[in-house]
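Hi R.,

Here's the chain you asked about this morning:
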Amino acid sequence: MEYNKTSFYENLFTAKKEIGKISKDSTNPFFKSKYFDINKLLEHVEPILNNHGLFVVQPIQGDKVTTMIMDENGFSIESSINMQLLADPQKMGSAITYYRRYTSQSLLALQAEDDDGNHAAKPEKKKLTAEQLSKTLKSNNLDAVKTVYNTFALEKDEKKLILQRITELTAK
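And here is the predicted structure, written out as tokens:
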């Protein structure tokens, strides 16, 4: 089979399926946000690309950082971003790392999967029992009624009844 650009894209497509979602595994303490560590990202992605005859290069040319996925036949795709030139070498190094990470993420259309427990931080709301609903509808404490409304997973009719009670208590 003769190798062509279609083969390049087929190899990239297969590799991308194997790469899957990437976990944001590092934390920025200043912004309290998660991000991909560039080294861990490349440790995960490069072996998969290599298994399909592809490799990554990230040249810096002037004020541009480029991420390229290439094969030995010269086929390639790339993602580039112009960066602001900074006088401070540490800040410039951080900027380059940032640009490398985001051009890689963009080029491979990587999906982020937070591993910071977001699902655990937002547990499913509990169902309201008939007894709790009855107590809520009889309550004269507006804050308590609002708390029930915001805390429990409510059926449509339960929401309507509790909202009516909130309206009654607000009018008093």
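One quick note: DSSP finds seven helices and eight strands in the chain.

Cheers,
M.
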